[in-house]
Amino acid sequence: MKHAVTIRPAVPADRDALGRYGAALMRQHYQYDAQRFIQVAHPEKGYAQFLVSQIDRDDSIVLVAEQAGRVVGYAFAGLEPVSWKELRGACGYLHDVYVDAEARGIGTGEALVRGVLHWVASKGAPRTVLWSATRNHVAQQLFAKLGFRHTMVEMTRERESND
Questions:
Q1: Residue 47, Cβ neighbours under 10 Å: how many?
Q2: How far apart are the first and last CA of the chain?
C-alpha cells in the first residue's frame, strides 16, 4: 500500500531534493524542445540554491510533497504585479510543478497545485497563471481539471541564416 502524501512548505534541509527535481524538470523540458528550453551541465546545485532562496520570501512559496518521510515532488509559485508587457493583471504565477515518477498517479501533483492555489488565494491574488510545455499533456489535463483554461499560445521561431 502506498503511503499518504503530505504537502508542506519547503525548508532548507530539502535542498538536495529540490535541486534533484528542479534539474529533472529542466531536463524534461529540454527533451520536449531542445531549441526552446535551456540545459546546463549539472543544474542540481544551481536549481537548489535558487529554490531555497525563495523559501522565506513573502511573495513566493515553495511546497514539497512528502511520502513516508521522503520528498517526492515540489511546486514553486510567486506573486506577480500587473504586467503591461504581458497584458496581464496581478496574479499568482505557478512556475514549477514536478513529481517523482514513483509518486505519480496518486494525486501528488494535484495536491501540490491545490496547495499553491490556496496560498495564492490567501495572498489576495485574483487569479493564478501558468505556462505548460506544449507536449506535457498529462500536466495540462491536471491543470484543466483544476479549472485552468487556455489563454495564450507561445510560439518560437529560430533565427535563420538569411535573417
A1: 23
A2: 58
Q: If you search the block for the grid coordinates 529542466, which residue do you land on? A: 26
- From the list 95, 103, 98, 101, the residue with the least C-alpha distance to 139 is 98
Task: Fill in the DSSP letter of residue 157.
Answer: -
Architecture of domain 5-10+55-145: 3-Layer(aba) Sandwich (3.40)
3-class DSSP state of 63: strand
Give pLDDT tens digits for 60-110: 999 999 999 999 999 999 999 999 999 999 999 999 999 999 999 999 999
Nearest residue to 143 via CA among 154, 152, 155, 131: 131
Q: Phi and psi for 69 in degrees, rounded to 5?
A: 80, 5
* Three-state DSSP string of 134-151: CCCHHHHHHHHHCCCCCC
pLDDT for res 3: 76
32 SS3 class: helix
Which amino acid is residue 147, in one-letter code? G
